[in-house]
Specification:
Distance between the termini: 37 Å
Strand order of the largest sheet: 1-2-3-8
Largest sheet: 4 strands, antiparallel
Strand content: over 45%
Number of strands: 8
Structural class: mainly beta
Radius of gyration: 15 Å
Shape: globular
């Protein structure tokens, strides 16, 4: 991987995938996640602001083997990102029968945002 995103961000277990963008011009895919857990090392400028939520975007580059067999809320709940021995990343969103799958040569963290989410649903 060009950047070790696992070291850049301690990914919380309870993240919601809310954004998927496939860009054929750049041969990339971007996933946006949201969580009510802050990263283990939040930026200093977040201190004292009462943030209780966090969103971040991962851009996967040099996408190959893209397969889309369905997309919706059920598929967004099943996210599997697996680092391969050759440094690439395998991405599976959804299940064997419905979802999005691809391989990427690298992934990078491109945007983060801490914010205060409402305490009521």
């Amino acid at each position: 991987m060009s950047a070790d995103w696992l070291q850049l961000l301690t990914l919380p277990e309870s993240c919601d995938l809310f954004y998927l963008h496939i860009d054929e011009r750049e041969n990339s895919a971007t996933l946006g996640f949201d969580t009510r857990s802050l990263p283990s090392n939040p930026p200093a400028e977040w201190e004292g602001k009462g943030f209780n939520a966090f969103e971040y975007y991962l851009v996967f580059v040099d996408v190959a083997g893209l397969r889309v067999t369905g997309w919706g809320p059920a598929e967004a709940r099943e996210v599997d990102l697996t680092a391969q021995e050759d440094g690439s990343v395998k991405v599976v969103l959804g299940t064997e029968t419905s979802g999005v799958r691809f391989q990427a040569s690298a992934v990078r963290l491109t945007k983060t945002r801490g914010y205060r989410a409402s305490d009521t649903p």
